[in-house]
Design goal:
This protein is an alpha/beta fold. It is 37% helix and 17% strand. It has helices spanning 6-11, 13-16, 22-31, 43-53, 86-97, 115-120, 132-145, 171-174, 185-188, 194-211, 274-280, 294-299, 309-318, 334-345, 357-369; strands at 33-37, 57-61, 102-106, 124-127, 149-155, 158-164, 220-225, 230-235, 271-272, 286-290, 305-306, 325-329, 351-354. The N and C termini lie far apart (57 Å).
Length: 370
């Protein structure tokens, strides 16, 4: 029996012709099992290129559904995918691309309950998530099971990528504590091509690592700036006090680090729904304020007056309130929540934030108006 079918041999010809890969390298790809955590902006190009390259088994973990705001950068999905589970949609599209591989779709969050078994069964883990809590869990489980993993993150026009292996520095060496107040794509935005760029770098390193080639991002952090197209590489060093890579604590002992930092919202009691917002914005007793930038305001708004977030505290202290209650809104609800916190700190207690911002308001109105 041959190692490849006729279709596979033809499909992977351009790889097999490379002396650095050849038949044996392609066979390593065929025998590999890669776990992809996250099927969003990074996960889409990673999954596409690994599937196209003939990685024999892919497991895709993502509990989210496709949202219309994803389509600007998540290239596995189409408008018809909106509302469907990402992992299942990804599986269907990837099998259409390459039916000779095996794909498992996990439609629940990657967590301490399912993570150990998923990591233990993989040859390589691809971190395509967007939060530190899940990255810490991936890091700690990969150390426990001696599984290499490739990290990437994106923010607006900037990206990072690194390959961590059992003998190198780990993610906690690089980030002993999670940075605070890092906005996600909903609040800060991201250039649509950036996750494609970083995801392609991830896939590039994965294919080289799995096929036996040298991997320059091993124990190295790549910094990418898309605005001026600059690239920097920083060599990583192990932290002698790292609780994870020195196995001073187990994932079970570190489980508090795996709680999503954005999941707790002390201002949740001061959020209003889109329906409540619609009722209040036409009532003279309520003062509606758009706290976004002037450019955003001029491009699109849903009423009220405009006071940018940085100016709101001072502006409302100087100008007497024209209403009993203030309702702030922004694009995703993050900046308006900060505005409410600033106003309460200044002694203005009767204020609220539109939950989910303009994004959620538009979705609600699309649903209600058909």
């Amino acid at each position: 029996m041959t190692q490849f079918s006729a279709d596979e041999w033809l499909r992977y010809t351009r790889h097999i012709q490379l002396p650095q890969i050849g038949p044996q390298g392609q066979k390593r790809l065929k025998d590999a099992h890669v776990l992809i955590v996250g099927a969003g902006g990074l996960g889409c190009p990673v999954a596409l290129y690994l599937a196209a390259a003939g990685v024999g088994q892919l497991t895709i973990v993502d509990a989210d559904r496709v949202d219309v705001t994803n389509l600007q950068r998540q290239v596995l999905y189409t408008t018809d995918s909106v509302g469907k589970l990402k992992a299942e949609e990804a599986k269907a599209h990837l099998l259409a691309l390459n039916p000779s591989i095996q794909i498992t779709a996990i439609t629940e969050p990657f967590a301490l309950t399912n993570g150990p078994a998923l990591v233990a069964d993989a040859n390589l883990v691809m971190d395509c998530t967007d939060n530190f809590a899940t990255r810490y869990l991936i890091n700690d489980l990969c150390i426990e099971h001696k599984t290499p993993w490739i990290f990437a993150s994106i923010h607006q026009f900037s990206g990072q990528c690194a390959l961590f292996t059992p003998e190198t520095a780990c993610f906690r060496c690089l980030f002993p504590e999670a940075p605070q107040d890092i906005p996600d794509c909903n609040a800060a935005g991201v250039l649509g091509v950036l996750p494609g760029l970083l995801g392609t770098f991830q896939a590039n390193e994965a294919l080289k690592y799995l096929s036996g080639m040298a991997t320059p991002l091993k124990n190295t952090l790549l910094l990418v700036e898309a605005t001026d197209l600059t690239f920097r590489k920083i060599k990583l060093n192990r932290n002698e006090h790292c609780v994870s890579c020195h196995q001073l604590k187990s994932p079970q002992e570190l489980q508090n680090d795996y709680q999503l930092l954005c999941s707790s919202n002390d201002l949740a009691d001061y959020e209003v729904s889109s329906q409540q917002f619609d009722q209040w914005k036409t009532d003279k007793h309520y003062r509606v304020i758009d706290v976004r930038s002037l450019a955003e305001r001029q491009a699109f708004h849903i009423g009220g007056e405009h006071i940018p977030l940085d100016d709101i505290q001072q502006a409302l202290q100087q100008k007497p309130q024209a209403a009993n209650t203030i309702v702030c809104y922004c694009q995703s609800g993050k900046r308006s929540a900060k505005a409410v916190a600033a106003l309460k700190e200044a002694g203005i207690d009767d204020c609220y934030s539109l939950a989910g911002g303009i994004q959620q308001w538009l979705k609600e109105h699309q649903i209600h108006t058909g």
